[in-house]
Write a structure and sequence with these properties.
The complex is a heterodimer of chains A (about 110) and B (about 110). With about 110 residues, chain A is mainly beta. Chain A has no helices and eleven strands. In chain A, the strands form two sheets. In chain A, strands 2, 4, 5, 6, 9, 10 and 11 form a seven-stranded mixed sheet that branches. A four-stranded antiparallel sheet of chain A has the order 1-3-8-7, with no helix packed on it. The mean pLDDT of chain A is about 95. Chain B is about 0% helix and about 55% strand. Chain B has strands spanning about 5, 10-15, 20, 25, 35-40, 45-50, 55-60, 65-70, 75-80, 85-95, 100-105, 110-114. In chain B, strand 7 and strand 8 (about 65-70) form a beta hairpin. Chain B is globular, with a radius of gyration of 13 Å. The termini of chain B are far apart. The chains are: A mainly beta (about 110), B mainly beta (about 110). The interface of A and B includes residues 31 and 107 of A.
Chain lengths: ~110, ~110
Amino acid sequence: EAQVTQNPRYLITVTGKKLTVTCSQNMNHEYMSWYRQDPGLGLRQIYYSMNVEVTDKGDVPEGYKVSRKEKRNFPLILESPSPNQTSLYFCASSLTSGRVHEQYFGPGTRLTVT
Amino acid sequence: AQSVTQLDSHVSVSEGTPVLLRCNYSSSYSPSLFWYVQHPNKGLQLLLKYTSAATLVKGINGFEAEFKKSETSFHLTKPSAHMSDAAEYFCVVTRMDSSYKLIFGSGTRLLVRP
C-alpha cells in the first residue's frame, strides 16, 4: 500500500531533550516536507526537500533540523525542544514530475513538550 | 499577498442532505487547487484537485468542486451527506513562487446530524 508513515505517533518529552520524528514514504517521491498544525494557525511548512541531499527552509524552520540521506526517509530533528514546539506534525511527499504536485500526508505525530 | 479563505469554520447538515463548503482564494495567477479531508486523529487525505483540465472536478466519496475563475472560488459539494463525512476539510492552493509550497485555508469542520 502506498503510504507515508511517521513514528512515533504520540510523544511527550521534556524541554531540552533531543528527539527525532521519523518519516518514510514508499512511493519513490522526490519531494518531502514537514508541517506543523496549530489551532487557529492552520498548517505551516517547517522544512522541505526536493531530493536526496537537497533541503530548504519553509515558513517556520526555527528550532528544527532535517536531513535527507535516502530518498524514502526525511527525519525531523528537534535538538533542544521547547514548549512552543508542542504541536501536531505532518510529513508529506509528492512527485516532482508533471504540472500538479498533490502531496500525500502521513498520519501525524502529536508532540507535547513540558 | 496570496490567501485562501474558507468562509465557514463550522457547517452542520443532516444526513442525506446536500453539503456545501465554501472556499475563495486570492491570486494574480492560476494556481493549482486542492481539497483535503482530515478525520479525527488521522492525516490529511486528498479529496480532489483542480488541474485546469475541467472546471468541475470529481473526487472521492462523491465529492466534487467547481472552479470559478471569475469568482475566484472553489466550493466543495456533495449531494447527500453521510455520517462518515464528519471531519475537517481544508481548501489548499499552491503559491505563486512554487507549485510545491501550499497555502492552507483555516479549515471547515463538517458536522453530520443523524
